[in-house]
Amino acid sequence: MKKILHLVTIALSIILIGSLASLFQNGMNVSFTFFLTQVVENVKSFITLTQLTYESPAGSGVERSIFPLIFEYYGYSLFILLGGFSLSLISALLLTYLTFLVPPSIRVGIKKAVGILEAIPDILIIVIVQLSFIAFYRETGILLFEVVGAFKRPIVLPLLTFAILPCFFLYRMMLLMFEDELMKPYIELALGKGLTRGRILWKHVTRNCLLSVVNHSKAVILLLLTNLVMLEVIYNLYGMTWFMINHMTGQIVTFGILMIFLPLYLLEALAKRWITHLTGEEVPS
Amino acid sequence: MKAMVKNKRFLIGGSFIVLIIISSLVYSIVFDNHIPVASITTDENGTITGKPPYAPWELPPFGTDHVSRDLFFILLIGAKYTLGLAFGIALIRFVISSVAGILLQLYLPTFLQKGKQWFEGFYYFPASILAYLSLFFILREDGYGDGFSTTFTERVIFEMIVLIVIGIPIILINVSKEVAILQRKEFIDSVKVLGGSRWHLLKVHLMPYLRPQLFLLFVREVIQVLLLLAHLGILNLLFGGAQLKTDMFDKAAYVSLSSEWSGLIGTNFRFLYTSYYWIPLVPILCFTFAILALKLMVEGMESVFEKKQIGRNRVEEKEKRIGEVTNKKEAFDSL
Q1: Most exposed among A41, A164, A212, B256, judged by the fewest C-beta atoms under 10 Å?
Q2: What is the tens place of the pLDDT at every residue in A145-192?
Q3: For residue B31, what is the DSSP state?
Q4: Within this chain, do residues A56 and A79 fall inside the same structural domain, yes or no?
């Protein structure tokens, strides 16, 4: 019950933010009554799922309902979002294991390097990946993956590009967490009991580190979403945020964000419950 | 502060940023923002050996753009605007939200706890989309027909306000979290028992701990603003709106009103898939270098704080060291 209330609060806050941001749709004449009517209208239309329209083709003045078309965009975005996240999580875990195989002196260097790499802007990564694939194609004539976007909706290249930045972020986070975790007394006990290093890392340390990933779910989600916007705009992928950017109205944006928020929130809640079950530690909200 | 200046990473990052801003300012004062134009190069016999646009390897360091202006000088001129904007916006964001955050956490903690939920929507609203939504109609659509109905200064102020406001909630939460962590320390209890008021507590006991943390948050915020500006550039939302001009093919093109970096990305992004791909790539790289320099500063500061923390704990109590590591975790919250 508490969770549902929390969910509704956040959903309402998203609607408020969206309505506030779309106050300027008719120029700079802003009034509070307009804001209130907009909020009420938004809530009404999101509950009844009517009046959600977009202009197509742009500039023609013809309004069409966004259903059922929106689900294609939505599914694709969710796929990239979740697929990219799992890809980055797995690769970050693997990288962390590999890092703990090398001697500590090198590890310090890696840690410093990743701290810097993490800050590379998403746009640079996206642009560089795309340019290098085009260059590779020009040189060899082999098209490794679909590069073009639009209605074809390529899968492999966007997923790979999308996963790079979250991977750095998670990798760095895990490096720090693993080091903290390995200093704790229970590791010594486990080693004393004769458990192998690999087993301790895999079973106990990973479990406790996933806790911290869930702990920082907000930062991770924000990173994923901003990354997604740029990916869809630059690659011209027909996903949810592309739709929002290209059919800019306050209603569509707010509704789109709500649609993305719902599954993410549910997943977050599930992950929290699962982690609590696994480690017995409560995750602060 | 002394320890920070001694830190190599902090020094490198900081001096890079300072160097860019100073050279940009000096260039605008001494050379009055003159942009050199590259001409066709010929050998002794008069045969043409190269013509603009030059690539970065033909005319180092950055080459020229499509109207053969030297990109290096354009970026140098734009640096003071972009970095100045980023620092300015981040500073105002930061001052407002840290004052509000500290006071709310000290005087109205229950109100803050309740109100926090209403800010959580910001974690699901990507800043680039939020900024685009609020700015699009004023800075783009308004100018489609016969020009803007607002003046340039109005638009600039409007954009500044929007960019400031959308960042405030998240920093406010982070600052209040920082204060809440400090409030849990034992000496705070002694201050309270001895009858110190909350203002005294803040001024004398909290600020020495808060000041470095706040500075760290500020530099992180500058990175965030720079990223946001770059994103808005990709979305072709130029600072202060854009003017519709015709380019060399008599096609309509948006022209940024200054050589501000994000505007350079936005206007030139269409060249990315031509053989002149360096024209948009160079400003993106400049953004990257600026952000990496700031990140170096952040890393340097963090390592200094960590050392201080460990040193302090060694004096007090050795075992507590492991517990203090939780501070590291907080580093991720503000991202």
Answers
A1: A41
A2: 665 556 677 888 889 999 999 999 999 988 888 888 888 888 888 888
A3: S
A4: no
